[in-house]
Design brief:
Number of strands: 8
Radius of gyration: 23 Å
CATH topology of the largest domain: Oxidized Rhodanese, domain 1
CATH architecture of the largest domain: 3-Layer(aba) Sandwich
Oligomer: single chain
Number of domains: 2
Largest sheet: 5 strands, parallel
Order of helices and strands: HHEHHEEHEHEHEHEHEHH
Protein name: ArsR family transcriptional regulator
CATH superfamily of the largest domain: Rhodanese-like domain
Helix content: 40-55%
Keywords: DNA-binding, Transcription, Transcription regulation
Structural class: alpha/beta
InterPro entries: ArsR-like_HTH, HTH_ArsR_DNA-bd_dom, Metal_resp_trans_reg, Rhodanese-like_dom, Rhodanese-like_dom_sf, Thiosulphate_STrfase_CS, WH-like_DNA-bd_sf, WH_DNA-bd_sf
Number of helices: 11
Strand content: 15-25%
């Protein structure tokens, strides 16, 4: 699965595949449709061919590409469906933030540092345990989003919770804030996540660092 994902994990290859799903095409036509050079398209098509994703046949001077055997069209369609699902979640979060701007207001990293120094907030990481173990903000408590409603008792009542996930466009932290506010917990989302924290030159913890 990792090898297949690695092969598909390039925007040009996905763009080429999307065109090939619609029908057999020459490398020149594929380059035109995807807006990349013929040489570049040919290089990426060779990667796809070695992985068995596409097959070729020669028609005069032209090399034509078609999908390889197997449910590759379904894979491309599933990727589209997942991206559409994620976009819908982001749109929902943006709409929610516009309708309830005070409740969905985020905290900047600088502001969070001040509050942490004062001991005024609880930092909540709502990613899964594996991501948390690899790197998290120092002192953060890890409660994955799907467990939050059942484990809210682990958070100190009367103390503001600042939730974060993978970055400024990750809707999980916004969903966590909504859940906590519904349960009567004062909560705010962090304007960023681990990547922004690292980019600011701030230290991160791992599961080993956090162990007693």
């Amino acid at each position: 699965m990792a090898e297949v994902a690695k092969t598909l994990g390039h925007p040009h290859r996905l763009a080429l595949l999307e065109q090939i799903v619609r029908g057999e095409r020459s490398v020149e036509k594929l380059a035109e449709l995807t807006g990349i050079s013929v040489a570049n398209a040919s290089q990426h098509l060779q990667h796809l061919k070695r992985a068995g994703c596409v097959q070729t046949r020669r028609d005069g001077k032209h090399m034509l590409y078609r999908l390889g055997p197997g449910p590759l069209a379904a894979v491309v369609s599933a990727l589209h469906d997942y991206v559409a699902f994620q976009h819908a979640r982001i749109r929902e979060a943006i709409t929610d933030s516009r309708q309830r701007p005070q409740e969905m207001e985020s905290v900047s990293i600088d502001s969070l540092l001040d509050r942490l120094e004062e001991g005024a907030v609880v930092l909540l990481d709502i990613r899964d345990g594996g991501e948390f173990a690899q790197a998290h903000l120092p002192g953060a408590i890890n409660i994955p989003l799907e467990q939050l409603a059942d484990r809210v008792g682990e958070l100190s009542r009367g103390t503001e919770v600042v939730a974060y996930c993978r970055g400024p466009y990750c809707v999980l932290s916004m969903q966590a804030v909504t859940i906590l506010q519904t349960l009567g917990v004062q909560a705010t989302a962090l304007a960023g996540g681990v990547p922004e924290w690292r980019a600011a030159g701030l230290p991160l913890q791992t599961a080993v660092d956090a162990a007693p």
